[in-house]
Amino acid sequence: MPFTHVDHMHPDAIIAIAAAKNSRELTREIFGDEIGWLPWRRPGFQLGLDLEAFVKAHPNAKGVVLESHGLFTWANDAKECYELTLQIINKAIEWFAAKTEGKTIFGGAVVESLPQAERRAIAARLMPEIRGRIGKAERKLGDFDDQGAVLEFVNSKNLRPLGALGTSCPDHFLRTKIRPLIVDFDPAKPDVDAVIAGLDKALEDYRADYARYYNDCKHDNSPAMRDPNPVIFLVPGVGMLSFARDKATARIAGEFYVNAINVMRGSSTVSEYQGLPEQEAFDIEYWLLEEAKLQRMPKPKSLAGRVAFVTGGAGGIGRATAARLVGEGACVVLADIDQAALEGTQADFAKMYGADAVRSVKLDVTKEDAVISSFAEACVEFGGVDILVSNAGIASSAPIESTELSMWNRNMDILATGYFLVSREAFRLFRRQNLGGNVVFVASKNGLASSPNAAAYCTAKAAEIHLARCLALEGAEAGIRVNTVNPDAVLRGSKIWNGEWREQRAASSKIEVDELEEHYRKRSMLKLNVLPEDIAEAIYFLASDLSAKSTGNIINVDAGNAQSFTR
Questions:
Q1: What is the DSSP string of 146-204?
Q2: Domain Class II aldolase/adducin N-terminal, which positions (predicted)?
Q3: Of 231, 253, 294, 307, which sits 20 to 30 A from 171 (CA to CA)?
Q4: pLDDT by residue (tens digit) across 468-487?
Q5: pLDDT band for position 497 (cuts 50, 70, 90)
């Protein structure tokens, strides 16, 4: 082409023209001779030849709309080409705004959206159920979207006929699959249990249709059929659920389907929307160049597709643990009662690992309703939970005769009842997902070895350890592993050790506060300080498949203390 700059774009307004049944006529009506039109052609060398021939035949044209695809523009200056592209896109947007004003969209609404809180509650119930059914071969993460454009589509009369036509632009269906799964749900009579009961059949039908599509369209040299599960789930009155191998891909798939909705909105309002023929879609999806890109993708990290829920997530051990798990590909939900520390930790993680990898919830682990709602929030944000790190903690010190009932109850409430509540909710979720699960308790050396002037703390920590053993027995048949890490004297970064506990333990050992860390180092058998990162390493081992055959176990990370030997 005789131009130094060529732009290629996929704006919704242009694709809405390109995907209309009479796209050639619409292009002429909107742009006149300024922008031409070419019939669909799969990206590649032949498309380049088509563009070359078009330019020779239409030397005054400034661009071309490619049927079912997008826009090409050209110029001899980068800025001129950029500004031309914006001008053409804005012209299409303005034309659609005028043509669709006052028109019935998607045939009109046939159901009403549920209130936002109900939509999120339904998503929280459905997403783990779906995730468990589509994630057995490869774990999936989810995203929920109930923006206005999505609700307008899923509530409409034409949801099913338009959804069945599939997306048109290759950039869309490469990420969303050619068509979504439309969930049979009536928001006027919201029976979520019935939807869950029907999921297996709905997924079976979708997979069968995908296999039919593959077998009808495959070539002798086509790659093997890929995952036949849907990526996009549309729920009337609720919104859109999207699933993929990682959070960013799930979110982006949803965003691309919103683009597809916008395209269908425009095309079907001013004309008749047409999806790409199945054979053409297949030849893009299973294009050998696309397969080569997939084969070159890096190997997933050890916790890819997993979601970890970390209580005490803004403290020293919790933060180090979350960082270790995210570094291995997990997404994390940071749960902590300290709102300021929580916000700071989430902001730091978003900068280091990307916003998709982390969410946070303020949580008092002693409050049953708060625990339940925090796990529901994790389900809406990521689709479910795979790993629970129960790490929220306090510490207190007093001789038994000076131990107030309030001190005793506070230790039991947080360290025993709190661990019970988060574990119970994790177990409920693990069983719904049917993907197994992993629980790691952060207990203490003091759960095995008694310590003077700390009866409330030591007893509560012992309760944690025994609770973990009980849960290991209950969870084994469902593939749920439960193990314990026992730290000792992890002072650095610890919120517990920044308070009275530090002074109390120094007084108990008859030393100065600033001598405490060195005192614990010398007391250990290995003469080493124990750091938050050391605890995080043990937690990662127990949370990962490195310990796939271990449950009911205890790992002491205390630099050696004979009192806490487990045998």
A1: --HHHHHHHTBTTHHHHHHH---SHHHHHHH-SSPEEP---TTS--HHHHHHHHHHHHH
A2: 5-88
A3: 307
A4: 999 999 999 999 999 999 99
A5: low
Q: Do 325 and 465 reside in the same domain of the chain?
A: yes
**Is residue 214 annotated as part of the catalytic site, yes or no?**
no
Q: Where are the alpha helices (DSSP H) in 303-338?
A: 316-327
Task: Give yes or no for a contact between 28 and 97, defined as CB atoms under 8 angstroms apart.
Answer: no
Cβ-based neighbour number of residue 76 at 10 Å: 10
Q: Rounded to an integer, what is the distance from CA 157 to the centroid of its chain?
A: 30
Number of domains in the chain: 3
Backbone angles phi, psi at 99, to 5 degrees: -75, -30
Q: Are 335 and 313 in contact (CB under 8 A)?
A: yes
Encoded amino acid at 270, one letter: V
Phi first, then psi: what are they for 115, rounded to 5°?
-60, 155
Residue 459 structure tokens = 């007893």
Q: Are residues 130 and 192 in the same domain?
A: yes
| Sign, CA torsion 198/199/204/209 | positive
Contact between 132 and 436 under an 8 Å Cβ cutoff? The reply is no
Residue 183 to residues 68, 112, 177, 399, Cα–Cα distance (Å): 27, 15, 16, 61
Let me know if residue 468 belongs to a domain: yes
Same domain, 156 and 272: yes
Write down the pLDDT at residue 293.
82
Give backbone dihedrals phi and psi of 61, rounded to 5 degrees, phi first: -70, 145
Token readout for 384 is: 């479910």
Q: What is the mean pLDDT of residues 197-212?
A: 98
- 289 lies in the same domain as 313: no
Tell me how far apart the alpha carbons of residues 268 and 106 are, in angstroms, rounded to a whole number: 7
- Total-model pTM: 0.93
Name the active-site residue from 213, 273, 457, 540.
457
DSSP 159-171: HHHHHHH---SHH
Please give the residue range of the domain that contains residue 161. Answer: 116-296
Instruction: In whole angstroms, give the CA distance from residue 180 to residue 108.
Output: 20
Cβ count near 172 (within 10 Å): 25
> In degrees rounded to 5, what are phi and psi of residue 223?
-60, 160
